Automatic annotation (TrEMBL):
GO terms under biological process: DNA transposition
Name of the protein in its database record: Transposase
InterPro entries: Homeodomain-like_sf, Transposase_8
Pfam families: HTH_Tnp_1
Source organism per UniProt: Hymenobacter perfusus
Amino acid sequence: MDRRRTYISFVMATKTSGASPDKRRKYGDAFKAEAQRLAGESRSTQAAAWQLGISPKLLYRWRSSWPR
């Protein structure tokens, strides 16, 4: 579990946020892949999204567009 938290902390540190509130945050492929893996291992996609600090709707959208 400690390794996962370290990786998530690293990936979350790499996400960028815009300088102004009207800009959207951008997430890299590494963050999206880790979010997908975490959601797949978790019983609840909502719980995984909450743990990552993102909207569950965003995670569901990534899951539907992610190549299988």
